[in-house]
Each structure stands twice: as structure tokens, then as C-alpha cells.
Design brief:
The protein is of the alpha/beta class. It is built from eleven helices and eight strands.
């Protein structure tokens, strides 16, 4: 029996940005923790001239080939060359497109990058991202009512990255820090339209993240209280009490990725989907 490889080459060929392909490849690779995927990403491959060097690169570092190529001629070339090289290849979208065609009884339009069209949804995402950047870390509290979601939490609970992730889905997100003994903005307590969610984590997790931040600061930065576990425990107790008093749902981000935290937030208000 062949021994398990501790690494393998993963070639990702796309006629667009490659985001769909990268997500699919990483989701699959994550199921095989004993083998590390060495990613080779080839975006915007839309003609034979662009494709040929990619196939040469695959020949030089054989591995798994995943592709999202709409053009049938190019996808046929990939399939043929991969067979000749003896490497496995899969069209990630083709089975899904075939399923849609069969169910809907209509052919696909075969448009490259169709998911990236600059339509109303695209501009809504841009607007959400601008709003989110303007309302990071408690900025511009006067118009918090315009937010779809407001995240609150003590320092290092992933408020900003989660906000940006939600904004990329078109969800206008503000975040407000909870600081021990410092009153929250009045507009926050008065907000009616937004979904307000508290983010927390374990004391150990926050201490670890804060320690890493302190190590990256200048020598003049005094971080003793910032990384003190007793102090962090008090901050978390204060944050939980605030959320409980205001009936704000709380999500523990300790073992959640940004994507999982965002999904949990969206699940609290289905109309955000």
C-alpha cells in the first residue's frame, strides 16, 4: 500500500479570479490534515496562449488539478493533457452546471466570471464595505441606526475582521469596543433597526492574541494590564453583563473561524442572507 504523502501539489486553474476554486480546493484539502497542499493558482486563464505555460508547470510538478473553465475547448485541452501526464483533474463547476441544466431544462450561458457582474448587488457590497470601514472601532456612532449589524466586544474578539467579512456579503456592519468602565455610545443602546451581537472568547484565547499584539509593539507600549488574565476576566464579565442587560445575543469566537462567526451572526437574522 502506498504510504501517505506529507505534501502534494494542488493546481487551481480559473478563467476568473479563482476565488470559487480556492475555496473548494481548501475545503477538500482540509479533510486531509496529514498532507499539506502546495497551492499553485492560475487565475484569468482565457485562451490557449495563457493555458499552455500552466500545463507545462503542472507537468513539472504533478499533482491534483482542479479547474473552473467555462470554455469547452480549453477545458477539453486540460482534460486531454492531464490524461497524457497521468494526473487527476476535475472540473469543479461542470457537474453543478449539468445538474442545473437538467433541473431547469435550459442551457447555461457559459459566461466567464458571471458571478462578478457589476450589478446592484455588487454596488451594495461596495456601499456596505465603505460603511463598515467608516464605522470600525466605534467611529461615527451618530449613525449606528443605519447599520444592518453592530458587533460589540472587548479588544481582540475579532470584531473588525468579522465586520469586513460581513460587509463583503453586502451587510453594513459597525463594531463598537467594550471597555471596562467606559459607557457605550447612547446611539447604540437606542438602536432599533440593527442586529446587535456581542462577541466573546475565553480568557486564555484573548490573552494569547493580546500577547502577540504586545510583542509587535514598540518598547514604549505598556501592556501589563492588557494581557493580565485577571483583568481580561473582569472585562469579559463586564461585557457579558452588558449584553445580558440589553438582551443582545452573544457568540463565543474562541474556536470559530471568521467565516463560522459570520454564519452564526447571519443565522440570528435570516433576512440578512
Amino acid at each position: 500500500m502506498e504510504s501517505t504523502r506529507n505534501y502534494f501539489h494542488l493546481h487551481l486553474i480559473s478563467d476568473s479570479t479563482g476565488e470559487t476554486l480556492i475555496a473548494a480546493g481548501r475545503a477538500a484539502a482540509a479533510q486531509f490534515q496529514s498532507s499539506q497542499a502546495l497551492e499553485h493558482v492560475y487565475p484569468l486563464i482565457r485562451n490557449r496562449r495563457q493555458l499552455m505555460p500552466v500545463l507545462d508547470a503542472i507537468d513539472g510538478a504533478p499533482g491534483i488539478v482542479l479547474y473552473t473553465i467555462v470554455d469547452r475547448e480549453l477545458s477539453g485541452i486540460i482534460d486531454q493533457r492531464c490524461r497524457e501526464m497521468g494526473v487527476p483533474c476535475v472540473s469543479v463547476l461542470e457537474p453543478v452546471i449539468d445538474l442545473f441544466q437538467s433541473y431547469l431544462g435550459a442551457p447555461s450561458r457559459r459566461r466567464v466570471g458571471a458571478q462578478h457582474v457589476m450589478d446592484a448587488d455588487y454596488f451594495a457590497r461596495i456601499e456596505a464595505l465603505n460603511f463598515t470601514m467608516d464605522h470600525d472601532d466605534g467611529q461615527l456612532p451618530a449613525d449606528l441606526e443605519e447599520a444592518d449589524v453592530i458587533l460589540v466586544g472587548i479588544s481582540r474578539t475579532s470584531k473588525t475582521p468579522t465586520s469586513i467579512y460581513l460587509a463583503n456579503r453586502g451587510i453594513k456592519t459597525a463594531n463598537v469596543p467594550i471597555v471596562l468602565g467606559v459607557p457605550l455610545p447612547e446611539r447604540l443602546s437606542a438602536a432599533v433597526r440593527p442586529l446587535i451581537v456581542g462577541l466573546i472568547a475565553t480568557t486564555d484565547r484573548i490573552a494569547q492574541v493580546r500577547q502577540n499584539r504586545v510583542l509587535g509593539q514598540t518598547q514604549d507600549f505598556r501592556g501589563d494590564d492588557y494581557i493580565d488574565r485577571a483583568q481580561i476576566s473582569e472585562e469579559l464579565k463586564y461585557a457579558r453583563a452588558l449584553c445580558s442587560r440589553n438582551n443582545w445575543p452573544v457568540i463565543d469566537v474562541t474556536r470559530r473561524s471568521i467565516e463560522e462567526t459570520a454564519a452564526a451572526i447571519v443565522a440570528l437574522r435570516p433576512k440578512l442572507r
